[in-house]
Q: What sequence folds into this?
C-alpha cells in the first residue's frame, strides 16, 4: 500500500441531488424541465515545479525544473430532482532538463438520488491513466516507476426502515494495471451491507458484513468480515467514527489463510473556516496491481484553514505499511524486503488574486522504502516544490 498525495486526489468527486418519483400529471413535466440548470466548468492550472524524482526523467539526484499544464472540464446538472457532477482533466508535464513530455488523463462522475422519502441512491466512478503512480487518489499504488491505469466505482443504496434505523447496501469495484511488460490487471470486488441505528441525536450504532473478492493473475482469493461501528457527533461540524471486527481471509492456497483484525478510527470536521480530517486503521485491501490481497496499516491527517477571504493554507500527511495477507511479517518493522512502508507530507498556501484567479505555493515529500512483490524497486523518495496559477473560467 503506497502513498499518493495528488492535488485532485485530496478531494473525492461529490454531488448532492434529489429526485422525486413522477406519476400521472403531465403538467408537472415542463415545470421540472424549466428548472434544470446546466453548469459547465472550466479550470486551468499552470504549474512550475522543481522535482528531484529521477524516475520521471531527471538528469541526476539534483532533479530538474518542469512545467505542468492541467485543463479540467466539467459539467454539473441540477434541478429539484437531480444534481450530477462530472469532469475530465488532462495533465501535460514537460521536463526542461531531459526534454521529455508526458500526458496523464483523469475523469470522474458522481451523483446522489433521493428516490423517495425512505430510499436514497448514490454512486461515483473515477478513471485514471497516469505516468506518475504517486499522483493517484489512493494509497497503495506507488510501488513502481511504470505508468498505471486505475479505476474505481462505488454504488450505495440506503433505505430508512424506521425513524431510527437505516439499512445500506454497498458495492465497490477497483481495477489496477501497471503498464509494463509481464504485468496483469488486479481486481477487487467489495459488496457489503450495514445497519445504522440512531440511539440519540448525536450517537448512532452500526453493524456491517463485508465480502471481498480479489483477482490477480488468474488467482482468486476472498474474505469475509463482520464489524461493529459507532458514529458520534462531537459538535455540529465534528464527527467521530469507530469501526472494528474480525476478517477471515481465504486464499486459493488454503495453507496461507487465517484471521486478521479490522480497525478504523476517523475524525472529520467541516467548519466555515477550518476543515480537518484524521484516519488511522488496519485492514485487508487489494487491487494493487502486484498481488491479490495485502494487509495494510495506514494513518493520515489533513487540514485547511481560511485566514481571510483571499488567504488560506492547507496541509496533509500520511503513513503506510503493508505485506502479505493475512499477517505475514506484520511485527517486523524493519523488514523492507517483504513489507512496503513509507510516508508523505505536504502543504501550501493559496492567495486569491480575484474571484477567478488564485496563486498557490506548495511542497510535497514522498518517502517510500521497500516494495513487497517488486524486486529492486528500492528507495522511491522524492521532493516537489511547486508554484501554481489556477484560473477558473466558468
A:
Amino acid at each position: 500500500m503506497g502513498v499518493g498525495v495528488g492535488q485532485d486526489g485530496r478531494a473525492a468527486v461529490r454531488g448532492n441531488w434529489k429526485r422525486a418519483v413522477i406519476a400521472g400529471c403531465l403538467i408537472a413535466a415542463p415545470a421540472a424541465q424549466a428548472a434544470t440548470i446546466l453548469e459547465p466548468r472550466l479550470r486551468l492550472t499552470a504549474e512550475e515545479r522543481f522535482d528531484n524524482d529521477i524516475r520521471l526523467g531527471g538528469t541526476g539526484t539534483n532533479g530538474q525544473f518542469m512545467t505542468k499544464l492541467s485543463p479540467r472540464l466539467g459539467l454539473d446538472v441540477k434541478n429539484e430532482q437531480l444534481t450530477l457532477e462530472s469532469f475530465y482533466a488532462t495533465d501535460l508535464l514537460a521536463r526542461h532538463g531531459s526534454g521529455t513530455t508526458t500526458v496523464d488523463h483523469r475523469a470522474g462522475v458522481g451523483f446522489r438520488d433521493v428516490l423517495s422519502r425512505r430510499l436514497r441512491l448514490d454512486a461515483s466512478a473515477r478513471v485514471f491513466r497516469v505516468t506518475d503512480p504517486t499522483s493517484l487518489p489512493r494509497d497503495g499504488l506507488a510501488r513502481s516507476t511504470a505508468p498505471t491505469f486505475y479505476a474505481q466505482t462505488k454504488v450505495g443504496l440506503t433505505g430508512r426502515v424506521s425513524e431510527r434505523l437505516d439499512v445500506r447496501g454497498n458495492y465497490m469495484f477497483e481495477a489496477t494495471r501497471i503498464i509494463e511488460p509481464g504485468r496483469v490487471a488486479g481486481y477487487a470486488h467489495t459488496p457489503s451491507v450495514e445497519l445504522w441505528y440512531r440511539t440519540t441525536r448525536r450517537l448512532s450504532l452500526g453493524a456491517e458484513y463485508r465480502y471481498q473478492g480479489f483477482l490477480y493473475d488468474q488467482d482468486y482469493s476472498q474474505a469475509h468480515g463482520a464489524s461493529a461501528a459507532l458514529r458520534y457527533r462531537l459538535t455540529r461540524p465534528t464527527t467521530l467514527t469507530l469501526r472494528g471486527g474480525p476478517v477471515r481471509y481465504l486464499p486459493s492456497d488454503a495453507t496461507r489463510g487465517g484471521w486478521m483484525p479490522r480497525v478504523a478510527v476517523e475524525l472529520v470536521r467541516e467548519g466555515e473556516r477550518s476543515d480537518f480530517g484524521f484516519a488511522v486503521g488496519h485492514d485487508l485491501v487489494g487491487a494493487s496491481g502486484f498481488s491479490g490481497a495485502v494487509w495494510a496499516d495506514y494513518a493520515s491527517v489533513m487540514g485547511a484553514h481560511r485566514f481571510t477571504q483571499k488567504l488560506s493554507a492547507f496541509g496533509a500527511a500520511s503513513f503506510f505499511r503493508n505485506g502479505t495477507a493475512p499477517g505475514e511479517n506484520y511485527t517486523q518493522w524493519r523488514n523492507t524486503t517483504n513489507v512496503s512502508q513509507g510516508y508523505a507530507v505536504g502543504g501550501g498556501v493559496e492567495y486569491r488574486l480575484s474571484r477567478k484567479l488564485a496563486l498557490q505555493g506548495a511542497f510535497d515529500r514522498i518517502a517510500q522504502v521497500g516494495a513487497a512483490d517488486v524486486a529492486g524497486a528500492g528507495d522511491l523518495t522524492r521532493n516537489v516544490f511547486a508554484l501554481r496559477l489556477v484560473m477558473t473560467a466558468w
In short: The longest strand covers residues 219-235. Residues 1-34 have pLDDT under 50 and may be disordered. The chain has one domain: 43-393.
